[in-house]
Amino acid sequence: MPFYEPAVRVQNLTNVAPADVPQDPTMSETMAAAFRSDNMVTSYITSRGMSDPYEIEQGFNAIDYVKDDPDFAPYVERFSGVFNQRAADALKIQIQREVSDRRTLDAAGIQGTIASLAAGVFDLPTLLPIGGGVLGAARSAAGAATGAAIGAGIDATVSEAGLQLTQQTRTGEESVFNIGGSVLLGGALGTLAGRYLSSAELSGLSRKIEQQNKAFEEADTAVFGGGSAQSAGAAAVNKGPTEIKDEALIKKFWGVRSQDPLIRSQLSDFDEARSTVRQLAETPLEYKANAEGVATEIGGSVETRMKMWQAPLADTLQQIDTAYAKYFHNAPDPTGWQRRLAPMRSEMQRITGGDKMTFKQFKEEVGRAAFSGDVHAVPEIAEAAKIYRQTDDAMKQAAIEARLLPDDIATAGDVSHLFRMYNKDKIAAYRTDFARILNDYFVSKRDAAARISDAENVARQTSAKADAVAKKAEEFSRLSDDEVADIVDQTIDTILGNADGRIPYDSIVSGPRGPLKERLLRIESKKIQEFLNTDIEEVLHAQVRTMSADIELTNKFGSPDMAEQIRKINDEANRKIAAVDGMLDKEGKAATPEVKAKERARLEKARKSAVRDIEGMRDRIRGQYALPSNPDGIVLRAGRVARNLNYLRLLGGMTLSAFPDMAGIVFKHGLTSTFRDGFVPLVSNIKAVRMAGKEVKASGTALDMILDSRAMSLAEIGDDFGRGSKFERAVKSAGTRFGVVSLMAPWNAAMKQFSGMIVMTNMLHATEAIAKGTATAKQIRKLGAAGINTDLAERIHKQFKKYGETQGGVLLAKAADWDDRLAREAFRTAVVRDVDRIIVTPGQDKPLWMSTELGKTIGQFKSFNVSAMQKITLSAIQQRDADTLAGIVTALSLGAMTYMVKQMTAERELSDNPIVWATNAFDWSGLSGWMMDVNNIAEKASRGRIGLSGITGEQMSRYQSRNVIGAFLGPTPDAVSDIFQVSGSIFAGDTTKSDLHKIRGLMPFQNLFYIRSLLNQVEDATGDAIGLQEKSN
Length: 1033
Fold this sequence. Notes:
Helix content: 55-70%
Largest sheet: 2 strands, antiparallel
Number of helices: 46
Radius of gyration: 32 Å
Structural class: mainly alpha
Distance between the termini: 60 Å
Strand content: under 5%
């Protein structure tokens, strides 16, 4: 797959914004800025006088000169044709002037709009109307509309072409908007004014009335109401709520209001941060404006939309599993058990001897077939490659539409496309061999460029595009062998430096000269296949993880780095800091210098915090947060293995702990709906329930039987994509399957499908009520919180009436058949959001420190309670109705049941004290979020003297098996402490049954709830057989 990077980006985005923003520009400053920006003649005169950029200054590289400067890094491609510092400095001055002019016009407000209009009206294409002259006068109203639209478009195109040639910061999309706005406005006015104005006069009148994107913003508001709409490659138009419901109350919860970047951003001092986080992250909270039918975020946040890509991923993986079962069992239609057991049986056959490929070998062959035209001698491998092709084509097309990839990303020699995932371990071990292959490739390309240089020189006389191509080919052909070797080394360094689990589609193969910056790595895959990871399952996971994030970020914000949104936050902060000069005290007098200084410091701290939080959530979504400088370090690898082992040895009873999940449905939809729309169909119409479950999975959730995403997220092992040693890979592989063994994956999948069915039923009933004008305030508020305004609700209802059906009280949307894409996506994102709110699945609602390698280890198994603070506690505070009360009662009841079952499986005595039952029910219910963790840690640290145990006389059952170190620092230090204690007792010769129990606690699968009693008997028998004393504690 080729390397591609449309622009060199600033790495530290906190330095992007703090540029001075004019607070109150004068009319003369505004007019000057407008004419330089929007008048072709003035722009041309201003741009003249630049030094000859092609005069070569030895040793000077313009790209290196500006790429690390945050003021010019976004425009680094403009310096690719500059070869001396004097010309580069002149170009920098021009860029600074253009940026300053745009800021001046923005700060001038309506005066800036008027000035830009004037600059357009007095431009050559308006005074000498080219479009009107070409088309002539129209004689009918329809002809006037058409003629005016086309004429305005021609004039705007001429003007924009001139501005593009003379300005450095003007984007192509900006020109497209301006031209399109002229065409639309010209046509609209032409219908009314065709009989009174000539085409030339009409063209002049329409010139720039749209003023940048104003018309498009108004159209967004008219069509979409609340929320936001966006186009690929352009930042989203910020429309929608910024104040969360009961904000003043939530701010009073100390600790909660600042626990994670999501809640901090929602309560930020800056509206731009609030607007950005609403579009970026999935929030479980409601906004104040939802009550008025305003959608939180139409089409869903980036985080939610990423989850929709999980549906094709899971479907593809399941079909590949089926293809392997066909191959392994020679069965044209394998059963579910054959599909699940084939990979394990293949490993047994590998040991005992057999002629079938293992599942791993099969997947690697599928990957090779994927770049070989999806053909293979084994029919099932070819079938699996074709299955992969469907997902690959959809994702590739989405990336092209988002302008993350070029239209032509084909690699010469590859019959078909495969996103490349490099085997970094092998490249590092055999770097010389890999470098030799790349060196031969680049040398052959250089020699080919030299051979075609003369032909390109002929074409350049008649084609500007050919001239540019010829120039690059000429530069390439001049590379020395040493320069080629440098390119090879830099390319390998780029590959090895790429984050594990990310497809390096956006990495650049950099060269010593500017014109080489866009060169793509198009080496034939077969030549480097030994250095590629072709395991199609691993490629798919990495591909979806990488591309879904960058596609959705780009579609929502215009670029994956969100540079524009961060600039806006900084700009707003700068305006507020500047406004402190006019700050008044409570008596209406000017505030003292000390008060002003304190307020400025507070705002500056808030600015840094807002940018840090947005960047942190962006990087977590992209899988790039807090990447270690040495990802292959022994300490980091040991930490990842430890977390996987902790999952295998400690969460065998997590399914029992998840009983209170069912209360979430009651919280959100009440007891009546839970039974009417859930349990009754489950008993009376299982076929419809299964169909509803498929609908939920098609939305992108309830896929845990294949992806096990919730359990791995709770265990902090979901983002481990490194290869490692055989032992590391074996532990990781066991972790990916443990959810099925512990029954947590079936539980999660079933609960999400069940809750999703109830969510869909209630949502479709609510949209019907809105369409009929009978919706309650509660229905309007809930739909708005889910991203559905009244217009979308009517569209969803229309689609359901057209394509859906009702079977025994189960509403089947059949959204895959809908012809209204926006309605379908809004419906599905709403389902995903609500299901992951009901069945608590951690997202951006956990602290940033918990996403560092050390934080994942210390905070392992704590993310549920942290996430529950927003998804359960704060949501209940916002909702506080009869459903909330029913949910609390249900959660406490299920918490008590969990306490009982956990005590019984652990063969511990049940208390006869009702207070013990009540406190444990509250602890297991999850109602208090992380607050009970604070209580339980305090109990451990104080040996029961502090906390609820001081009342009950017993420690909470959830923490009984943990020592003080484990309570504070997580299960890994707890295990290390146990290892040292056991080894010490062995060497001292005083080993007891307590030490034997600690040894058992270090073993994987040791507390699986359905075999725990048997393991207890084995432990006791072993202790008796070797004569160990009774447990000392």
